[in-house]
């Protein structure tokens, strides 16, 4: 039931801190840094000795993989590739016995993922599932796997499954990197960051009414939007832009901040809404260039930045301030205000936010 919430999507956005808290309590021993994956634990050595980890997913699940690609590369000494399932099939990808093929899917039923899974298995590939729905096809057919335990997600647009995927991917990267002395401090920093996440997520949810107001006053009548992000936050931009298309029915494009000047800037004028994700990390200084370019061409971007940020000259409420965490975890926090933005835009435009037109929760046809 929706309880006191107006929509399942709203309820699922609000459930996120609890779900992440429960997942961490279940899986992570903060003191020792040990991670308990139950069944999957027995397969960790095999995955560690693979020559490559190949992630395969669709839609938001693909963006979750994209968000964590760099982390896998730095914590494990294994090459990482990520493919959208349909493209993996289109390419007639070569299957090798020493690659770990990881299928990430909320429903565990997505048609292209299932076809790609069968394609891998027929050619002797070792397959792993990261799935939410218990006993779903991908959960049953993969050699081993991990449930993200986000609970039943009813809203067609994924929210709580996305952040649970992110956190479980972080845990998997940490577990695969365990024992590597050169990354000890980095793993410790991430483990501590994880511990703080649920509380930070709760605080970020208190932005709800200000985001609703931003949607009412600035965004709900726009026909086009851009979401800019770079580095770890490019995946957040893609996920936010998909959410806005799907729930608000607003044409919204995600652009890598560094690519702005290579063409997209031509779109920008004072009618065009731009949301720029600019929380502080290694690429922050370069994001400032994108900000200057927007301003000098009449853009009036909404900035998603860290609390207390002074690098931007924002006077008109065009600012969404989030708490700071470790760079690779920042996407878990940053997506929350953008989920709320898509939710409120959908509500204000009288859309069916839980069941958007033309899309299904579980996409069982290719
Ligand atoms: C977007 C959304 C979809 C799914 C995609 C994959 O809000 O929910 O893009 O992420 O259809 O679905 P799963 O994860 O069930 O394989």
From TrEMBL:
<comment type="function">
    <text>Involved in amino sugar synthesis (formation of chitin, supplies the amino sugars of asparagine-linked oligosaccharides of glycoproteins).</text>
</comment>
<keyword id="KW-0677">Repeat</keyword>
<comment type="pathway">
    <text>Nucleotide-sugar biosynthesis; UDP-N-acetyl-alpha-D-glucosamine biosynthesis; alpha-D-glucosamine 6-phosphate from D-fructose 6-phosphate: step 1/1.</text>
</comment>
<keyword id="KW-0032">Aminotransferase</keyword>
<dbReference type="GO" id="GO:0006487">
    <property type="term" value="P:protein N-linked glycosylation"/>
</dbReference>
<feature type="domain" description="SIS">
    <location>
        <begin position="43"/>
        <end position="183"/>
    </location>
</feature>
<dbReference type="GO" id="GO:0006031">
    <property type="term" value="P:chitin biosynthetic process"/>
</dbReference>
<keyword id="KW-0315">Glutamine amidotransferase</keyword>
<keyword id="KW-0808">Transferase</keyword>
<dbReference type="GO" id="GO:0004360">
    <property type="term" value="F:glutamine-fructose-6-phosphate transaminase (isomerizing) activity"/>
</dbReference>
<dbReference type="GO" id="GO:0006047">
    <property type="term" value="P:UDP-N-acetylglucosamine metabolic process"/>
</dbReference>
<dbReference type="GO" id="GO:0097367">
    <property type="term" value="F:carbohydrate derivative binding"/>
</dbReference>
<protein>
    <recommendedName>
        <fullName>glutamine--fructose-6-phosphate transaminase (isomerizing)</fullName>
        <ecNumber>2.6.1.16</ecNumber>
    </recommendedName>
</protein>
<dbReference type="GO" id="GO:0006002">
    <property type="term" value="P:fructose 6-phosphate metabolic process"/>
</dbReference>
<feature type="domain" description="SIS">
    <location>
        <begin position="215"/>
        <end position="356"/>
    </location>
</feature>
């Amino acid at each position: 039931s929706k309880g006191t919430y107006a929509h399942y999507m709203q309820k699922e956005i609000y459930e996120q801190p609890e779900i992440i808290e429960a997942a961490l309590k279940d899986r992570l021993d903060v003191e020792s840094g040990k991670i308990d994956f139950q069944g999957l634990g027995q397969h960790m050595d095999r995955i560690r000795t693979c020559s490559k980890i190949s992630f395969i997913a669709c839609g938001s699940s693909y963006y979750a993989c994209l968000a964590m690609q760099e982390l896998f590369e730095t914590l494990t000494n294994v090459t990482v590739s990520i493919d959208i399932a349909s493209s993996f099939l289109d390419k007639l990808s070569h299957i090798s016995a020493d690659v770990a093929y990881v299928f990430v899917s909320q429903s565990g039923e997505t048609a292209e993922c299932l076809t790609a899974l069968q394609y891998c298995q027929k050619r002797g590939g070792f397959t792993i599932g990261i799935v939410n729905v218990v006993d779903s096809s991908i959960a049953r057919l993969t050699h081993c796997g991990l449930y993200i335990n986000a609970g039943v997600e009813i809203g067609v647009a994924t929210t709580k499954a996305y952040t649970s995927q992110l956190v479980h991917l972080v845990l998997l990267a940490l577990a695969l990197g365990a024992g590597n002395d050169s990354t000890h401090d980095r793993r410790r920093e991430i483990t501590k960051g994880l511990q703080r996440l649920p509380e930070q997520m709760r605080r970020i949810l208190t932005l709800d009414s200000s985001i609703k107001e931003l949607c009412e006053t600035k965004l709900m009548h726009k026909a086009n939007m851009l979401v800019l992000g770079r580095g770890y936050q490019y995946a957040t931009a893609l996920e936010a832009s998909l959410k806005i298309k799907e729930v608000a029915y607003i044409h919204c494009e995600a652009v890598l901040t560094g690519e702005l000047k290579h063409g997209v800037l031509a779109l920008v004028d004072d009618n065009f809404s731009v949301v720029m994700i600019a929380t502080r990390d290694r690429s922050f200084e370069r994001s400032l260039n994108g900000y200057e370019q927007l301003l000098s061409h009449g853009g009036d971007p909404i900035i998603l930045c860290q609390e207390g940020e002074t690098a931007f000259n924002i006077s008109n409420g065009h600012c969404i301030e989030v708490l700071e965490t470790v760079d690779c975890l920042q996407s878990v926090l940053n997506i929350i205000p953008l989920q709320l933005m898509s939710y409120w835009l959908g509500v204000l435009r009288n859309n069916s936010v839980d069941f958007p037109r033309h899309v299904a929760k579980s996409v069982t046809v290719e």
